[in-house]
Amino acid sequence: MVSLNEETGVDMWDLDEWSVRLRRDALLLVVLAAVAFFAVSAGFAPVYALAVLLLVALVALSRGDMQSSKAGLAEPVSQGADQPALAALMDRLDLPVLLVSRAETVLLQNASAETLFGPLPEGAPVSARLRAPGLLDMLRRVMESGETDELDYVERIPVTRAFRVRATPLDATRFVITFTDRSGLQRMDQMRTDFVANASHELRTPLASLRGFIETLQGPARSDPKAQERFLGIMLDQVTRMSRLVDDLLSLSRLEIKSHVAPDAKVDLVPLVGHVIATLQPLAESLGVTVTFSAPKEPVPIRGDRDELQQVFENLIENACKYGQEGKAVEVDIRADAETGAEVSITDHGPGIEAQHVPRLTERFYRVNVEASRSKKGTGLGLAIVKHILNRHKARLVITSEPGKGSRFSVRF
Ligand code: ADP
Question: In ligand 1, which atom is closest to the CA atom of 370?
Answer without folding.
Answer: 14
